[in-house]
Amino acid sequence: MSILPKKNDLGFFEIRLESIGGLGANLAGKMLAEAGVLGLGLNGSNFASYGSEKKGSPVKSFIRFCDQGVEIRAHSPIEEPHVVGVFHEALYKTIDVVSGLDPEGIVLVNSIRTFDDVKNDLKLEYGTLAIVDALGIAVEEKTKVNTAMLGALFKICDFLNPEDMRTVIRKTFEKKYPHLVEPNIRTFDRGYNEVQFKSIETPEDATNKAFTRPKPALGYLTQEIGGTISAQGNSILKDLSGSRQGFLPQFTQEECINCAQCDSVCPDYCFVWEAGEDKRGRKQMFLRGIDYQYCKGCLKCVEACPTTALKDIRETIGFAEENQVKHNFPLVTGGVM
């Protein structure tokens, strides 16, 4: 008798993780597959898809489970998942994270926003939405987002045994990082216990959400002659928000002494300055604000600031855009710097 709640035509229960580099989705997929295979005796497979190995670049992790009598011969990306895990909300801007989702599928999102806000952003018409503050849990426990997301995924995939994942966590960390075993188990348990669900009624005639495969902006038919890079620095879109892992520097102008320590350590020239005069009439450059389009959220500026003018805050959807409007910074979507 199968323990899997649902299977596709090939006999697979499929999970797709949508993330960015640095949040641990690749390792999460490996650990999730390992727990199902070693703990329940399921057949399982996992692999990840990503480009350059750097923080902020899009990452997908694919997990397949099936009964022992079924062989996994499919090694293609998962296009019609039963469960989708979204590690970073900035992915909404560039990726249709729920593409191909099963009509009765479940979407897990790392967020602190309301169900309705997330549902509207995802354009989710039916299925189940799960929300967990994985970043908040990871910060408090001094671990990573992926372990909290694993806890929530185990609550979703109730055919899996949480104790099997605790065993995998111990096995993964105990040799090289024994001090991280207990914090990661606490993070896993909190993700498992703190995830919340909201179901949207699924019509009888509902079908999978149409799967879309992103096409490259420049291909062999649309590339410049000779492969010329027409945008300076090989950057076409000026939006680095996808690189951020959940925190931003917040600027308080009244507490700033215009020392430029922040600007000297910023790798992306995020700080906007303007010429002016001090109280004695001497010419000086004054910090006007932060252009978040260029900010990767490294927080080096917060560490360098000698005052309390810069503090790290939890990023929320729309905060950066509101800052651009407040300071009258242009929203650049193409061209060169």
What does this structure look like?
- The protein is 26% helix and 21% strand.
- The protein is α/β, with parallel strands linked by helices.
- Strands 2-3-1-4-5-6-7 form a 7-stranded mixed beta sheet, sandwiched between helices. A two-stranded antiparallel ribbon has the order 8-11. A two-stranded antiparallel sheet has the order 9-10.
- Helix 2 links the parallel strand 5 and strand 6.
- The relative contact order is 0.12.
Question: Can I get a quick summary?
Answer:
By secondary structure, this protein is an alpha/beta fold.
Approximate strand percentage: 15-25%
Order of helices and strands: EHEEEEHEHHHHEEHEEHEH
Structural class: alpha/beta
Kindly provide the radius of gyration, computed on alpha-carbon positions and rounded to a whole number of angstroms. Answer: 23 Å
Count of DSSP strands? 11
Strand order of the largest sheet: 2-3-1-4-5-6-7
Biggest sheet layout:
7 strands, mixed
Q: How many helical elements?
A: 9
Q: Kindly report how far apart the N and C termini lie.
A: 61 Å
Helix content: 25-40%
Mean pLDDT: 86
- Sequence stretches where pLDDT stays below 50 over 5 or more residues: 232-236, 333-337
How does the overall form come out from the CA principal axes?
globular
